[in-house]
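Worked example 2:
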Amino acid sequence: MSQRDKLLVKILLGNSDANIPFEQLCQLLCNLGFEERIRGSHHIFSKEGVEEILNLQPKQGKAKAYQVKQVRTMILNYQLGGQDEDSV
């Protein structure tokens, strides 16, 4: 299992939202096809076909728990990160 898959499972389980490294979360979103725009400490992620926009900020090197929950909700609602990504 790759680092990306381990992080995805950790996010989807929701047991440790306050313990997700910020940079790894940003990297995961980029791998899922999101475009990243940075304005100061705000990392703004958007993706074609996804209505919502994610606005994330680090807190002492970690992602904020409520923002990890937003990422999890978006992954589940749009079924991102599945095995069928290659067929897109």
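The chain is about 40% helix and 20% strand. The CA atoms of residues 30 and 73 lie 17 Å apart.
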